[in-house]
Amino acid sequence: MGKSNAKARSAERRARVEELRRAEQARERRARLLTLGAAIVILVGLVGGGWFLFAAAEEKEQAKAAPVEGVKSWSKLTQNHVTTQVDYPMSPPVGGDHNQVWVNCDKQVYTKAVPNENAVHGLEHGAVWITYNDEASEADVSKLADMVNRTSYTFMSPYEDQSSPVVLSAWGKQLKVDSASDARVQKFLDKYVQGEQTPEPGAACTGGMTP
Q1: Of 185, 122, 115, nearest to 150 (Cα)?
Q2: Which of 81, 170, 183, 194 could form a Cys-Cys staple with 126, CB 3.0–4.6 A?
Q3: Where are the chain's structural domains?
Q4: Is the separation of the CB atoms in 63 and 187 below 8 Å?
Q5: Lowest mean pLDDT among 13-22, 34-43, 61-70, 190-199
């Protein structure tokens, strides 16, 4: 009788140990599956995020490569430093001989006209110069100022001797528009701020002169 009870208790303990072992194995399997699932989610996120960044970068490059309708171009512009005023063939000027000191052109909003010769030096460094005359509305001037304040290598100033309310100029490139709401304004900035036309890419837009 005693031996039978001992065998029964021993069998019961073995069964309990086996049950605990199976439960532990089940927990380990669940943990492995959770870890694998988390790894897959992270991997998918990384791949998806990487693809999104790649697609965004590719889209931006395609936008830069696309021509901006209405842009006029000039080539073979001289780059001599001079101390006298220059008679530029276009207004505002987009290149040519210029003063050795550039106008500060990094997110600069000027409320008074800037000297052509200093502004052109800023264009040589890859800046875009936004100008406006008295035909531009206050709302347009404010919107343009907001864009300049958000965009490195840009500056703006009033300029009366121009044929359109708003003009955007880069080295050898110019776009005339009637309103700051014209979609080509942002396209011009995307393409020509430090664009391929820049004679001295990466040159400073600070440390120059402020009119």
Answers
A1: 185
A2: 194
A3: 1-65, 72-192
A4: yes
A5: 13-22
* pLDDT tens column, 25-77: 767 777 777 777 777 777 777 766 655 455 544 555 565 678 999 999 999 99
State pLDDT tens for residues 145-177. Answer: 999 999 999 999 999 999 999 999 999 999 999
What pTM does this model have?
Answer: 0.73
Q: How far apart are the first and last CA of the chain?
A: 111
CATH number listed for the domain at residues 72-192: 3.40.30
